[in-house]
Design a protein that fits this description.
55 residues, mainly alpha
Length: 55
């Protein structure tokens, strides 16, 4: 799994995914980024980090 930075989305990491195309790689979007939904609140770093470890 690879996680994007605060202002990016999983799409930012597509070059990395292509470079390691012989492996499975997961590129999730953080809440409110890329194709994910935007909650009414909850954009603290701790909220974003909690999302990635909740699944």
């Amino acid at each position: 799994m690879a996680l994007h930075g605060l202002m990016g989305s999983g799409a930012c990491l597509l070059p990395l995914a292509r470079a390691v195309a012989d492996h499975d790689i997961i590129l999730p979007d953080a809440r409110g980024h890329g194709g994910s939904s935007s909650p009414p609140n909850g954009y603290l770093y701790s909220d974003l980090a909690g999302d990635h470890w909740a699944h």
